[in-house]
Amino acid sequence: AAVVEHTFNVGAMNISQLCTKSVIYTANKQLPGPTIEANEGDTVVVHVVNESPYSLSVHWHGIFQLLNGWADGAYLITDCSIQPSGNFTYHFNITGQEGTLWWHAHSSLLRATIHGALIIKPRNGTAGYPFTVPYGEIPIVLGEWWNKNVYDVEIDAHLTGLGPTISDALTINGKPGDQTPCKGAGVYEMEVASNKTYLLRIINAAVNVELFFKLAGHKFTVVAVDASYTDPYATDIIVISPGQTVDALTTTSAPPGLYYMAAKVFDSKTVSIPFNTGTATGIVRYTKAPNNTVASMPAMPAHNDIVTAGTFYRSLTGLARPGDPAVPTTVNHSLVVEFGLDQEPCAPDQTKCKNFALVASMNGYSFQFPKNVCLLKALYDGLPTVYSEDFPMSPPPVPVIRKATSVMKVMYNEVVEVVLQSRAYRNNLGTESHPIHLHGFNFFVLAQGLGRFDPRARGVFNLVNPQVRNTVAVPGGGWAVIRFTANNPGMWFMHCHLDAHLPLGLGMVFDVLDGPAPNLLPPPPVGYPKCY
Ligand code: C2O
C-alpha cells in the first residue's frame, strides 16, 4: 500500500465566469479542486494550508475514518477548523471501500468552490473492478455557481433567516456551458474515441440542488453509488442528490459527432419557491467528429418529475459479493426520525428578516452547533455539559421545537436502524427531497417510499442486496429506512446535505462510545485544530 500525499493551498483565485469577474476561494487555484486518486489500502495525507480569510475544515465525504474521527473534518463536530494562516495535515487510511467519493469544505458555503473528487481504485493484486475495465475514466463534478462571494451569500441567508439566494448557474467540472445568457461562458469538453467504454465518476457537489444528468445519444450502466458497487443498472438518466456519487459506464457507439451532456435541477417542492431553472451543459466530442457538426441536446425531464427520480433511486441494488458485509439482522436501536422545516418569528439579529425565518428539526430538536468546542474533543475530554444525550427515539407526540446540541448514545458495534421520515407528508411545507448524509459509516438502504412510513413495509425490506450508501435522498413527504453497524467510536454527524438546511438545524449526532474495549479512539493527532 502506498502513501498518497497532497498539499492544498486554500486561497483566493481570480476567475471570470458567467461574464463576471469574481474572486473565489479554491484549493490550488482549481475549480473543481485537485482530484485525489488512491488505491484501497493506501494512506492519504493532505496538508491543508489555509491562505483564506475564513476558518476552514475539510471533510473527506464517505471515508470511514475508522478509529480516526479526528480527521473527519466536520466543523464543530470533529474539529474546530483551521484558522486563517493556519494549517493542518489530515491523515487517513482507506480500508474496505472502492469507488468515487469526494472532499469538500465543511464550514459555511465554502464548499461551493472548495471541493474535488476522491477516487479509490481496487487494491493492486485483487480481483479489480467487478465490470470490464473501462478504456477511460472521467470525473464529472456537478456544481453550483454564485457570482457573489459565497461567504456573503451565507451571511445574507442568516440575515433573512431563509435559504440562500438561488445560484446563478449550474456547472459541469466548474463550467456552466453554452446555454446560459452569457455568451462565451466556459464549456467542459471531453474527447472520446469511438466504440470504447468509459467510466464516468459523477459527483453532485452542488450546494443545494438535486440534479438530473443525461448524455445525448448514449445510455448508462450504473455500477456503483457512494463508493459501493451496485448490480449493473441500465438507464438513460442519472438522478443524484448533493453528497451522492454515481459511477456509470457509457459506450461510445453513437455516430462520430458532438453530444451534449446536461444537468438540470430536480425539485419536487409543491410550494412555489424559486429555484435555479438553468441547464449546465458539457460536450462529448468524438475524435472523428466531422467538422461543423452540431451537438445534439438530451431531452430532459420536467423539473418536478418525481416518477423518474423515484424509479432511479428505488431500482438500485447492491452487488453483494461473497465477503461483503451482510445486512445485520439484529437491531439494537430502532429509531424513527421525522424531520422538516417550520416557520418561526425573526430573531433580533436577523436584520433583513421580514416576518418569519425557517427552522429545521429532527424529532423536535433543531441541532445547534456547540460554541468554541467540538463534540469529539468534548467526548474525549469528558466535558459532557457541552451536549445532551437525550436525542429522542421517535418524534414528539405534540409538535415542539427545542434548540439543543442533542446526541444519541450508541455502544460500539451496536446496530442502528433509522426510519428517516420527511415530515412534509403532514404539513406540505415544501415537499422537497432531503439528502440525508451519515458521517463515518455506510448504511444499507432497506426500502424507501412516499407518504408516511407504514410498519407493514418491513415485510418488503431488502435484506439480501440493498444498495449501500452514505447519503440517501429521502423523497419529499416520503421515507427511507437505513441500517448500519456502529463499528467506529466517535461523534458522527447525520445531516441534510442541502447546505442551506445545516445552519437551520437539520442534523443530529451519533455518539458512538468505546464500549467494552475502552480507549479505542487514539488521542488527537499533532496539530489538530482544537478550540481550547
Ligand atoms: Cu459531505 Cu457533513 O458532509
* Small ligands present: CU-O-CU linkage
Q: What shape does the CA trace take?
A: globular
Amino-to-carboxy terminus distance: 36 Å
Instruction: Please state the average pLDDT score.
Output: 94
Number of individual domains: 3
User: What's the CATH first level of the largest domain?
Assistant: Mainly Beta
Cα-atom radius of gyration? 22 Å
The helix content, as a percent range, equals: under 10%
Sheet of most strands = 6 strands, mixed
CATH topology of the largest domain: Immunoglobulin-like
Tally of DSSP helical segments: 4
Short note summarizing the structure:
It contains 4 helices and 32 strands.
Description:
Its cofactor is Cu cation. The structure is a single chain. The chain has three domains: 1-128, Cupredoxins -  blue copper proteins (Immunoglobulin-like, Sandwich), CATH 2.60.40; 131-317, Immunoglobulin-like, CATH 2.60.40.420; 333-513, Immunoglobulin-like. Helix content is 6%, strand content 40%. It has four helices and 32 strands. It has helices at residues 150-160, 306-315, 375-381, 424-427; strands at residues 3-17, 20-27, 36-39, 43-50, 58-61, 87-93, 99-105, 115-121, 136-145, 169-172, 188-192, 197-204, 210-215, 220-225, 228-235, 238-240, 245-251, 258-266, 279-286, 333-345, 356-362, 365-367, 402-404, 407-411, 415-422, 434-438, 443-450, 467-469, 471-474, 478-485, 490-496, 507-513. A six-stranded mixed β-sheet has the order 10-9-12-17-14-15, with no helix packed on it. Strand 22 (365-367), helix 3 and strand 23 (402-404) form a beta-alpha-beta unit. The chain is globular, with a radius of gyration of 22 Å. The model has no long low-confidence stretch (mean pLDDT 94). CU-O-CU linkage (C2O) is lined by residues 59, 61, 74, 104, 106, 243, 437, 439, 493, 495, 497.
